[in-house]
Structures are given as structure tokens and as C-alpha cells.
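Lab manual, section 2.4: Encoding a predicted structure.

Procedure: take the sequence of the chain (333 residues), apply the prediction step described in section 2.3, and record the output as C-alpha cells. A sample record is shown.
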Amino acid sequence: MCALKNEHTNEKKIKYILDKHIYGFIHYLKFIEDHNGKNSDEYHKFENKEMHARYESNDLKNLKKYNKTFYLHVKYVEVFDRYLYYNYPDIQIDQINEDIINKYKDYCINELKNTNKTLNKKLSTLSKFFNYLTVSKKLFKYNIMFNVRYVKNETEKKPTILTTNQIRLLFDVMRNYIYGQRCIVISKLILETGMLTRDILNLKISQLSRNDKTITIDSKRNNIKIYKLSNSLYEALNDYLLLRNTFDVNGSPYLFLSSKGNQYSIRSYQIFFAEAVRRCDFEITYTPRHLRSTFLYNVSKLVSEERLKEIASQNKVKQYYEELLDNPLRNIK
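Recorded output:
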């Protein structure tokens, strides 16, 4: 088994057992997604050769850019495929059974040292994959994964977050700096919207509506996202804009600028944040990512798990994030 652990990701030229079904599996997943979870039993009625050919002509790197979830499904099937190759080299697809899957579970835990959470993700992928082989390819009479038990997830550790008092202290320290208002606004945007730091620093001044007190983002997938700013954040932003006018010697389109008028960098924000945290003398060395953890932890009390995933990934969200208006981190001064 240890030999497999070292080799299964490096073999590129070997024809594995499940290889020829992987791209069809992607096609199947895409069908389910495009048809809003339509009954997979109807998949065999649907054929889209053009789309199938498009997937076959693209490597996994392109697939990763297109859809990270699909990419992980493929990688998990590939890991299982290599396990089969090295442990059951003569096996036929229709000979795969529940006993083999359970031995693969043991391999993932004992050899790959997967957590229970990761193992359950792999089992979920295999369930979808064998459903595809059952429904579309008719290789099994039933989905064998129905008889394979998931494992109990480990107790989740509470994420490292900042308290409201710590946030207030941090902002007080930042105000002592001549350009601290800029980083206060960036930090408040993370706490109130959950946006990634890089997305905040890529904001253009044209995306800010001072009349509506909103920031609008038009994503690559043509999903328009509108963030309603709290009164506290809007006031802080107005103060920063006065400071920005002294920076903007080049007519830059970016909202956040350095003192020389260039786009403010993530590294500059991280350095400033680290210095402010050091002066607060916290027991924990917080970083900007802990601001986002604080946002997600607080919003998780207001929305469902699925909705939180949408907000966190900023994928398939609709117009205003109405739930964020109840975020307890709004209006911290």
C-alpha cells in the first residue's frame, strides 16, 4: 500500500480501469447542474456531443478554472482508479463491489491519513460516479455506494476569530497612523461583506454609489452583486475618500491607493495590519484572514449552511445579500 501512496499520482502513461468514463462523468454532472438537479434517471435521454467533445479536448487544468467542484470530483475518482490498478490489476468494472470500497476506505484512513471529512467527500464523489455508471452506462444493477457507510466527521474546532472589543481596539490603534483610515475601511469591508482582500483592493471608484451607499460587483459569470454599506462604514469611507484625494495624482481608477497614487497592494495592507495587531498586544497574532473568519462565524448564526457556502464563495448569489444586513459586525466604530 505504501508503494501505491508514492506512485499513484505520478503515473501518467498507464491506462487505468476507470479512465474512459471520467469525461462522461463530467458531462453527467454538468447535466445535473444545468437542469437544476433534475432526476438523474432522465440523463440517458439527453445527449450533447458538442459539450462532451469540449470536455474531452480540455485538460484538468482548464477544468479546474471552469469549475473547482468538478475538478475535485475527477481527482477523487482518479485516486480510486489508481488504487484499483495497483491492488486489483485484473479487475473488470462490473466486479467492483462494496467490499472493495470498504477496503479503499481503510486505505484512505491508514495510508493516506485522510481526515473523516476528506474521506466523506471522496465517498460522496464515488456515490455520484457509480450512480452515473448505473444510470447511464448500465454497468451495475444498483448503485453499490448505497451500501457503503460514511464515517462520522470529527468535531469541528471553533475558528479563530476576533471579539467586538478586539476589533474596536484594533481600529483605535489604526487611527493613530496618518494613513490608518484606509486600512480601517478595508478591514470593515471584510467584516461586513466577507469579500476577499484581493477583491476589495481591486475595487474601482466607479463601483461605489454614494447615493445608494452600495458597492456593486459584476463577476465573470455575469452575476451582479450589490453590497449595502452600513452607516458606520459609509462614514469611514467618506473620510477615506478625502484622504484619497491627496493620493490620486495620476487619476487612478482604483478605490484604494498608496500614498504615491498607485493601487494599494495586499502586501502593504498585511504589513500595516500586522503592525497594528502587534501594538494591540493580543495573545494571538491575528492576520487579515481572521477578519473573514470572524465574518463567516457571525453570519453562520444567521443563515443556512448552503447559503453560507454561497456567500463565502460568492458563487450564484442574487442581488443584495439581505442576510448581511443583520450581521452583528456592522457599525462597529
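Check your result against the sample. The chain has two domains: 2-147, 164-326.
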